[in-house]
From TrEMBL:
DNA-binding protein H-NS-like C-terminal domain: residues covered: 62-110
Protein name: H-NS histone family protein
Keywords associated with the record: Cytoplasm, DNA-binding
Protein localization: Cytoplasm, Nucleoid
Species: Dyella caseinilytica
Gene3D superfamilies per UniProt: Histone-like protein H-NS, C-terminal domain
InterPro entries registered for this protein in UniProt: H-NS_C_dom (IPR027444), H-NS_C_dom_sf (IPR037150)
Amino acid sequence: MAVDLKNLNHTQLTDLISKAQARQSELHKEKVGKLREKVLALIKAEGYAFEDIFGGGVRGAGVKRRGTGTVAPKYRNPADPEQTWSGRGKRPRWFNDALKAGKKEKDLAI
């Protein structure tokens, strides 16, 4: 299909470009879908499940996410022992107030 671009006005050319980009996107999605089917068929033919090869999600091969568990407290407020701080993140007000009052970090350590 040969299109004479010199005979197209600006609107026609813009329309042609957008249709070509849409078609290109469709072709890309079709190709990815076919490749996905081939990979899944190969995994199944070898007797494995997708999760066996790539883990529980679709994050990628061997990529694990670190857990965001809790950290043991490192500092305790002497005025209120229920207030603690792990030493990570922004300092709590009670910690800053204690430092301004002349305490040292080691005085607040658990």
